[in-house]
Write a structure and sequence with these properties.
single chain; 114 residues; alpha/beta; Rossmann fold
Amino acid sequence: MIRVAVDALGGDRAPDEIVHGAVDAASAEIQPVLVGPTTLDGHGLPLLESSAVIDMDDHAVDSVRAKPDSSLVRAARAVADGDADAVVSAGNTGAMLAASLLHIHRLPGKGHPR
């Protein structure tokens, strides 16, 4: 089973639409793991707690450093920590890239071309 950390607070219609999408995606092959506040109604999906949000207009790198417990950063850390196999966010793209590079890193041999 593939465990996918889902940033439940990322995106324009979060968290409702994100949670509904995760519920729809759940199957025998895919296990969405929501990342958000403890008050989030995950409709039975597993939840990793986070207490902050990176907004769409936040500076990418600064917000990743300043908000280590944001749903976006916590979702990326879930992959790094082995709590998930993949991560997805409809939130701040630059912050997702920064968090992924900081916590997950690049695949070996997949850096910049020389």
